[in-house]
Write a structure and sequence with these properties.
The protein is mostly helical. The protein contains five helices and two strands. The chain has one domain. It comes from Coprococcus comes.
Length: 110
């Protein structure tokens, strides 16, 4: 499951001209960490393995945050199967976080 921010190149170019990208990296890490926490809170718990497996990985020089479970069955829980109802935890966490992330980035551009 991936998320693509449209127009990020233009934002990055403007930020590069106007400021140091360390502020962007800070916003990305903070919002990624908050999304990880929200996903962990929303993950259904049987043994707790799924919740503990939800990790945050920073890539692209700190400009990309990837939140995902390492448990093999994480996608089945999120999306469901023909035998099991979906129990979304990543998408709701993302939906909650995306507005705050956009707002935090817009504050940097002003």
């Amino acid at each position: 499951m991936g998320v693509q921010v449209i127009g990020f190149e233009k934002l990055e170019a403007k930020l590069t001209r106007n400021m140091d990208l360390s502020a962007v990296r800070t916003v990305v890490r903070k919002n990624g960490s908050e999304m990880q926490r929200k996903a962990q809170e929303k993950a259904p718990v049987d043994t707790g393995h799924l919740r503990r497996s939800i990790t945050l990985e920073m890539t692209d020089g700190g400009k990309t945050a990837e939140v995902e479970p390492t448990a093999d069955y994480g996608a089945y829980v999120e999306l469901g199967t023909r035998f099991m109802k979906a129990q979304p935890y990543l998408k709701p966490a993302f939906d909650e976080q995306k507005g705050k992330f956009k707002s935090d980035l817009q504050k940097l551009v002003r």
